[in-house]
Amino acid sequence: MRTVKYAKYLPQFGWDPTVLTLVNEAYPPYALDRSLISELPEMVKIVRTKTLQIYENNGETSQQNQLRNRENLTDKLIRAIKHLLSKYIEYQDNAVLWLPYLIPNIIKLSKREDFDIIYSTSPSQWTHFGGYIAQKIYKKPWIMDFRDGWVGNQLFTPKSNMRKIFDRLLEKTYINNASFVISATPDIHHQFIQKYPERSSQFTTIMNGFDPSDFDGMRLNKPMQNCFQLNSFGNLGSIRPLTWFVQAIFELRKEGKITSDSFSVSLYGNTSDENRKIISPVDDLIFLRNQVPHREALSIMINSDALLLVTGVQERESVFTSKVFEYLYSKRPILALASQGDLQTMLAKSGNAIIVQPDSVTEIKNGLIMLMDHFQINQPIEIKMDQYVQSFDRKKLTGNLASIMDSLVIAR
After folding, report:
1. Dihedral sign computed on CA atoms, order 258, 261, 267, 272
2. What pLDDT is recorded for position 61?
3. Structural domains in the chain plus CATH codes
4. What DSSP character marks residue 381?
5. How do residues 264-320 score in pLDDT, each as one tens digit?
6. Separation CA 54–CA 94 (nearest Å)
7. What pLDDT score was predicted for residue 67?
8. Which long-range contacts (CB under 8 A, 24 or more apart) does 337-345 make?
């Protein structure tokens, strides 16, 4: 989403993007939202390449496994070969298998195009290897964009000390060669400053955001009803356990404060099997929904009574997804299960959220009761769209990126 929005708005700031990416077939079906491509202007060039990349069964849901089972014998044989290759590579981020196609296409593009800026975004970190190679070929400024951190990120779990040393070396090499490093969260930005203080002038943060045009033409069409509807959007993997949220729901029902006629939660997106098991005792109150196209998700969002934001107890970096900012723009009350950190600070500053600790059943119960009390007396919590929230407009954020690009070109 972040890169799509940059490509959408950069032409309005005088930049013509060429995007080097994978063929659609390289992505699992559940990871694609083909509707987003329609947002790009015709001038945006997209070059798609093949890959040897595979997708491990890493926290996949039963629904995703069913898609695997539909593969024919040839597909399964190819997958088995790729799986074997990944074992020998012994690199958890198997996007390294994109390199045999990525590098030749960078060389091919260099022979017919003269670019002014090189831009790479991660994860996967191997896209930065492509950016590094492109910088050496083109001799042009290179911007690295980190949607998640790298070494030090809680999701970075090296298989061996050798790999950890290898990644530290790669990270340092890339940072020292990049012209500018952009982080998607303050936490990632601060980590880089601590590790590479001598390069701090080349570091900045550009948060994710919302695109007001995505909401164009949408109307509130929620029918009058007595059932309070709390909706969540996005993936809920094992790093975001629903244990305490479900316990809060269970206790509220036991206390007679909610019933299946008065309260329901819908989780749109992929939910891990672990969380599915946690939900099972209250599956008449919490419903698992398939992932829906972006516009449909936004329509459901603005017609929700409230929105649920779930983060892990120790989660810091990866919580600033586009969803958070779309929640803010939707002007719906938010129940945020968020630990202390940048996300909690931002939500408190926006004034749009009831913030509770992810592992506090009491706080979660109190937050739900507050939301339902307002709903039952037909007095919604007033949400204001102040300048702080408006600063996360995708077009404005793309303007920040364009300013960095302009300055790098002028400085050459």
Report:
1. positive
2. 43
3. 2-209+393-411 (3.40.50.2000), 213-390 (3.40.50.2000)
4. P
5. 999 999 999 999 999 999 999 999 998 898 999 999 999 999 999 998 877 665 567
6. 7
7. 46
8. 337/244, 337/245, 337/308, 337/309, 337/310, 337/311, 337/364, 338/309, 338/311, 339/311, 339/312, 339/313, 339/314, 339/315, 341/187, 341/316, 342/185, 342/186, 342/187, 342/316, 343/311, 343/316, 343/319
